[in-house]
Every structure is written in structure tokens, then in C-alpha cells.
Amino acid sequence: MTIIDNIHLHQKDFSNSEAKVATYILDNPQHIETFTITKLANRADTSTSAVLRFCQTLGYNGYKDFRFEFIHYLKGNRQLEPQDAHSFIDRYINEFSNTLIDFKSIDETELNKLVEALLNHEMNYIFGMHLSSIPARALSLGLLDLGIMSMFSDNFVTGGHYVNTLSENATLIFFSITGNNTNATAFLEAIPSASLENTFLITLNPRSELKRFFNHTIVLPGRTTSAKSIVDLQSLPTVFVEILLNLIHEKQ
After folding, report:
1. What mean pLDDT comes out for the span 229-233?
2. DSSP per residue over 82-102, as a string?
């Protein structure tokens, strides 16, 4: 029995969160070669403990043992010949270029609201956890370079302290590449969003469950491209940050 057969065999034994892990792995088996347990949990919209329980349900001590056997399975069952490197680069660059062109579809009204909010010279609070911290940090540092005050956090503990200092005229921006960070719910529920006008979610997920916590949502293109890649496309939100900073610079 293969490891895939084992997953199918235990479908009825999985909890809801473990089932999310199983579904993601079955849909994207090639990702396991490069994914850490944290990255898998993030992509499957669940927790690392759920991934661990999933592995244990299958009979493994932990994710390390499961991943080792899964990689062995993948290598033994590859039917496609390795792609020519240049052909792969050409295809990937074309997909990425098409995604960049799709930036023209970003909601211009919401984008202008974000620019105006960041120019109000009140404090700007910028959050991004895990992989989403890369564009969030870039925006915070870029604003400081432009003489605009900002505070950045890449964890919920520090972010929780920042929330206590929010004023009604502050701007709050939350980056979430997947838009499905279940660990963010408790943090976002503590934010007095009812008294804040300028709250923005930046995500690649148009169906993000986090949208309900924000008055404004800007959806970036690239979700389809990201799903095909073993690498999280932090570069797309970072491109957006560069566009945003240049718009702000022009209006200063």
C-alpha cells in the first residue's frame, strides 16, 4: 500500500482540520518536497498541531517521518521526464509576466483610499505574519524613508501591544498572502475596527475569511500562479508595495 493509499484509507478517521491537510496534500503532492510543517499548515489553512495529528493518524511519529516517506514515494513514482531548464524558465517567466499585467485590475478606488490614508500623517500600523511579513516590513520601512510614521509587527504578541495604542485616525494594514490565517482571528477580534475607518486587508485571496474584519480589502492578482508554484509568491505583494510607495511619493 502506498502512502497515498494510506491517506485515502484514513479519510474517515481525520478531524476537520486534519482533513484539510489531507485534501491539500492530495491536490498538491509535489509541494511536500519543499514544505516545512509551518508552510504546509499555512497553505492548508490549519495549524501545525493539526498537521502533526494528521501524520500520527497515518502511523508516523511526526511530520519529519511522514515527509521523508512521501518524498521517497514521489521519487519512485515520477513518470514525467525532467523539463529542460530554459523551457521551464520561459514558461514561468511568462506566467509571472501575465500576473504583473493583471495588476491593472486592482480596484483603483480602494487603492486611492489606501494612498490617502497613509498620507494623513497619523500613525500607520502594518502587520504581516510569517511569509506575509516580507511585504509588510518593506512597506513600513519604505514609509519611514518617505518621512511617514509607521509601526510594523510580524507577531501577534507585539501586535497586541500596538493595538492598545490605536487612535480613530490611525491606518491599519494587514498583509495575508493566503487570506486564511486562522491564528489571526483572536488578534483581529481585539482590534476596535468599528471605530476605525482606515483598516485594509492586502491579500491574494478574493474569498478571504479575514475580509470581515476590515473596512477595505485590496485583492492582488497571482493566486493561480502561486498555486502552481512550490514557492510562495511574496514577490507579488512586494511589487504592490513598490507601486504603492511610488504613488505616495508622487502625491507628497
Report:
1. 56
2. PPPHHHHHHHHHHHHHHHHHG
Write out the three cell numbers for 136.
509588510
The Cα 162–Cα 140 span in angstroms is 14
Residue 156: burial class (beta carbons within 10 Å; 0-12, 13-18, 19+): middle
Nearest to 149 by CA among 129, 175, 169, 174: 169
pLDDT tens across 80-136, in order? 445 566 676 777 777 778 778 888 889 999 999 999 999 886 789 999 988 889 999
Residue 44, pLDDT > 60, answer: yes
Residue 193 pLDDT class (50, 70, 90 cuts): low
Q: Rounded CA gap, 237 and 138, in Å?
A: 10
Q: Which residues 6+ apart lie within 8 Å of 250 measured at CB? A: none
Question: How crowded is residue 84: how many other Cβ atoms within 10 Å of its Cβ?
Answer: 9
What is the rounded distance in angstroms from the CA atom of residue 174 to the CA atom of residue 163? Answer: 12
Contact assessment for residue 154 and residue 133, using Cβ atoms and an 8 Å cutoff: yes
Predicted local distance difference test score (pLDDT) of residue 80: 45
Q: What's the rounded Cα separation, in Å, for the pair 106 and 104?
A: 6
pLDDT of residue 86: 66
The CA–CA distances, whole Å, from 218 to 85, 125, 159, 186 equal 35, 16, 21, 22
Torsion over CA of 52, 56, 58 and 62, rounded to 10 degrees? 60
